[in-house]
Each structure stands twice: as structure tokens, then as C-alpha cells.
Amino acid sequence: MSEMITITLPDGAEREFPRGTTGAEVATAISKSLGKAALAAKIDGRLADLSEPLEADAKLAILTAKDEANRQDVLELIRHDCAHIMARAVQELWPETKVTIGPVIDKGWYYDFDREEPFTEEDFAAIEKRMRQIIEKREPVTTETWERDRAIRHYEASNELYKVELVEAIPEDQKIRMYWHGHWQDLCRGPHLAHTGQVPADAFKLMSVAGAYWRGDSRNKMLQRIYGVAFASKAELEAHLHMLEEAAKRDHRRIGREQQLFHLQEEAPGMVFWHPKGWAVYRVLEDYMRRRLTAAGYQEIRTPQVVDRKLWEASGHWDKYRENMFITEIDEEHANEKRVNALKPMNCPCHVQVYNHGLKSYRDLPLRLAEFGSCHRYESSGSMHGLMRVRGFTQDDAHIFCTEDQIEDETARFIDLLGSVYRDLGFERFDIKLSTRPEVRVGSDAVWDKAEAALEAAVRKVTNDYEVDPGEGAFYGPKLDFKLTDAIGREWQCGTFQADFNLPERLGAEYVTPDGDKARPVMMHRAILGSFERFLGILIENCAGRFPTWLAPVQAVVATIVSDGDAYAEVLAQRLRDAGLRVESDLRNEKINYKVREHSSAGVPYILAIGRQEVEAGTVAVRRLGQQGQKVMPFGEALGLIAEDARAPDLRG
Ligand SMILES: [Zn+2]
Ligand SMILES: [Zn+2]
């Protein structure tokens, strides 16, 4: 008789099975329909093939397409199987193609191929069709563990030399796993779905093809990377494609060009040239943030951009981050060697220098130092994208120096401020993620316990709906990440709040305790917007270029209907400017409807039309963006109306 093991199901029920029973067999034993619907297993929380034998007592969950609790896992399985199925389809269609790697990425997957002839988007229909045929065959996905030599011989025989290289790179102590989708084989860690028919045939789409170097190294051969997206249902795919269409319509790079907000050029890659209108928006946002920070008890400072490498060595950045730093060398007077500096990639070490000036006592804590800190980081040219990913940017940065006991209160204050700022800027929804201690870390477990508990307790004061990412904290402390959701459902990680037990130690920050001893403060790194550049990109796309009046680059245009109104229009425009509004006049010899259309499509919130009647009566015809028709009113009333609407949210009564 075979030995029995105990399997605990998600509802807590325990069942006995012979050792070696597979997840698939357990699913079928529970019910025939579960056996059919089963996609994969979770054994003690680890995602696994349904065919994997259970060798010991374990907790077991059976994943199905309807599984809400394991939705992300199900999506990743589908995307992963899509990668294999696409590679099989490509090799069936173009047998000379060599396969390399094909990982899952956000919303989909890619696969890198080596083929002399370029793939084009015209090939996608044929590949998709072949993929559907493979899916319809419902061929089983099977797996085996191979000896290293066998795997190498196999791939040498089939002339798949990239795979030989991949096998050779797998550490000696790791197993070599092979997967088959029907007859087609690939080297893979798994896990996978049970058969090809479990990939929804109507919920994937190939999106684009691009060049990519083998192993990301420009000395290697350029491969062809085909990207695809996949979901659990057709409706989700359609929603995603619709979102992409919407995103293209509101692309901040196009709006930035059309509204003359900013530009980028080759001579300064990833660094923004702000034009008057874009800079006006930037400054309104900066002024707003400054007021919010001051009101929340922060003190603003300013620290140097170019800082000697010695400080970066002391902070640890020179060791860990140098590849991303812009380095400068200068012949210092009377010096024998060049002095090496770096443009600051972050503000933190400089803030500790400010903190370290003058003895600090517990009475000085918490000390909140804020800086709109201009930073530079080298990003690869391929990763840069308009304002969203740049090399030169300004953080709404601040560091809170506090005691361990103050962490919870500071966290709660921060979340409060962040939520209020996001609401003011038009984002109602944001999600919080808590990342806890990683394996490799500094600081005692007692300090980590305390800090993690403090962060979590503060989050719980606001919401019980937050995510915990175990082990994903920085080596120097736990952190909170804040992701906001924009108007078309995209998520953007902007805010961050990180405890740091390391930098105060490295840079010698301390304070005098009530007992007269010296102690280390905890340093909290925090940002709400992240960077002004990226956040403005998000803002532009969120409102599709139609800024709320307080942020609009041009808040009102005074437009004439007849040239008799020119002088009056100029007077009114100036009076609006005197009231602090951003105003243009449009005296062109064009039809008023033409002017209205042009300024409306540029997102100007108010258009004040001036005809003969208005000149005589001292009135204006006001059109509000997004509203039908116009309203004639005395100029003073219009001024009051616009001025009120143009007030920043924190200054409203
Ligand atoms: Zn795989
Ligand atoms: Zn920092």
C-alpha cells in the first residue's frame, strides 16, 4: 500500500491522497468540473504545474480562469503560454528562425527571434492565426527534467545555439527543465497551463516588433522582438486596446508640442526645454506644493548640484549607483590631480549635511527638510519617453529626521498630505503598497519590527485596502509606494515613503536624547509627485490637455469679433493680467467661430468675445470650455468669475 499524505485545501478541508498524487488528480477527485477547469496548482503558496506530484503534506489550491484570488497568477500563466505558443507558431511558419527567450511582461509577453528576414506587422495575422490553430488543438503541456549534457547535445543537434548558451549559463546546482506544447519544445522554468486550449483564443493580440540585442548587449547580434498582450477574456483585451487608443489621443508629447509647453532635443537627451506656457504650469504646481509643504511643517532648503565624489563614496552611491551618475572632472587651482564630482542623482546625502550642521536634540525632531531637488540620472536612450522618463528632473523631495517612536505619526501625516494633494490635482483614487524586509538588509530585527508595524498602523488609519509585498523593501528600510489611477484607468506609481536606518549611520547623523546620550535619527525619504517632469506628463494625459483653470497655461483669451473692439480687448486683457491671470488677446482678422474653435481645442478654459455691442455696453460674451453657448455679462463679473475659478484648491474658501 502506498504511503498517504494530507492535502489541505483553501477552505481548510483536509484530504488524504497517496504520495505522488498530482494537482490534476486532486482537482478531479474534488469534482469532475474542477478537474476540467483547473489551470495550475499552488503548492504551499508556490505556483506549480498541475502535473507536479505532491510528495509531502501540503496546502494546495487549484487555479481556474474564474479564480479572483489568484488572478495575477492566472494572467501570467496565460501570457507565458502565449510566449511559447507564439514561438512555436513562428518556427512552424518560418522553420529557419532561431528561438531565444520569451518572458512575461506587464499585460503580455515578448519573444526574441533570430531570423535574417525582418518580421513586419503584416506577418502578425499569419502568426496569430497559427497560434489559434495550436490553441484549438488543445495539446497537452508536458515537462521533463533533463541532464545538462543531454540538453546541450539536443540543442546543438537542432542548431539552437542560443539555447545552448542559455543551458550553459544555468548554475550547476539547478535543474534543466524542458516543456512541450504538443511536439514543440522549449527550455523553461515553468510552470505552465495544462494544455494549449486553456489560452483564450480571442483574448490575445500581437502588438509590435522591435530590435533587441541578444542578452541586451550591443556587442551581440541584433534579434527581433515580437510583443504581444493577453488577457483572460476578450472583453479585457478590448478594454485594453481601447485604453491604448485613448492614451494615444492624449499623448503628452503631442499635446506638449501643440500647446507649446516644452520640447526635447538631441543635444540634451532626456532633459526638458520648458517653454513659457509649460513653465507657467510647472511654476503653478511648484508654488502649490511649496504652500502645502510649508503648511505641513516642512522647511525648504537648497543643496548643490555638483558634489565631490567623496560624499558619494561616503553615502555608498559611488559604489552602487555610479553607472547612473553624470561625472564631471575639473582642474582645481593648485591641485595636483583633477577633482572628480558627480551631478547629484538624489538629494539625500546633501540633506544629511544640512542636518549635521549644529548639534541636534530630541527637541528638534521631527525635522522635515524639503527641496525641489534637481537631479540627474543616466537612463539608457531606449528607456526614455517624453516627460515620463528623463535624465534631468526635479523631485518634490523631503527627508524627515525623526525618532523610531515618531515614525507612525509621520507616516500618518504624510499619507494625509499625499491624499489631499492627489485629490486637489484631480486624482481621486490611489493604492498603497507596503514593502517589507528583504533577506539582505541593515538594522536589527527589532528596528525593522518597529518600523514595519508603524508604517502598517499608519496605513490602517486611512484604509484596510492595501497590498503587502513581502521582502521587497530596500536593504535600508521598509517602504510605502503610492500608485494613482488616471482618467483612463492607468496606474502610475508616484508617491513614496521610505524608512532608512542606513544613511544616518553612514553619514554620522545623530541627536541628543533626553538622557543626554547620542542616538541615531531614522531618516524618512519621501515624495508625493515623484518628479515634477513626470507628474506634469501624467497630468497632461489625465486631463487630455484640458487643464483645470488654476493650472491652465492660458486661462483666458480675449477675442475680438470686429476690429472696432481691438482697443477695448487689450484693456480687458491687461486688467485680467493685473488680477494675476494668464491671458492672451486674439485680435486676428478671423471669424469668431474660428477663434473659438482654435482656443477651445487648445484647452483654454475661458474665451471672452468682444463685438461692437460689448464695447458699447462694457460687457463681454463669456464662453466656458466644455459648456454650450455663451453668457453676456459686465466685465467685472467675468473677472470675478474667472479669478475665483483660477484659485488653487488650497486657497479656496
Ligand atoms: Zn515557459
Ligand atoms: Zn532621499
Automatic annotation (TrEMBL):
Residues 1-64 form the TGS domain. It catalyses: tRNA(Thr) + L-threonine + ATP = L-threonyl-tRNA(Thr) + AMP + diphosphate + H(+). Its cofactor is Zn(2+). CDD domains: TGS_ThrRS, ThrRS_anticodon, ThrRS_core. It comes from the Bacteria. It is found in: Cytoplasm. Zn(2+) binds at residues 348, 399, 525. Transmembrane segments: none annotated. Gene3D superfamilies: 3.10.20.30, 3.30.54.20, Anticodon-binding domain, Bira Bifunctional Protein, Domain 2, Threonyl-trna Synthetase, Chain A, domain 2. Binds 1 zinc ion per subunit. Residues 242-548 form the Aminoacyl-transfer RNA synthetases class-II family profile domain. GO terms for molecular function: ligase activity. Its EC number is 6.1.1.3. Pfam families: HGTP_anticodon, TGS, tRNA-synt_2b, tRNA_SAD. Its main location: cytoplasm. Keywords: Aminoacyl-tRNA synthetase, ATP-binding, Cytoplasm, Ligase, Metal-binding, Nucleotide-binding, Protein biosynthesis, RNA-binding, tRNA-binding, Zinc. It is an enzyme of class 6 (ligase). PROSITE patterns: AA_TRNA_LIGASE_II, TGS. Belongs to the class-II aminoacyl-tRNA synthetase family. Homodimer. PANTHER family: THREONINE--TRNA LIGASE, CHLOROPLASTIC_MITOCHONDRIAL 2, THREONINE-TRNA LIGASE. This is Threonine--tRNA ligase. It comes from Paralimibaculum aggregatum. The gene is thrS.
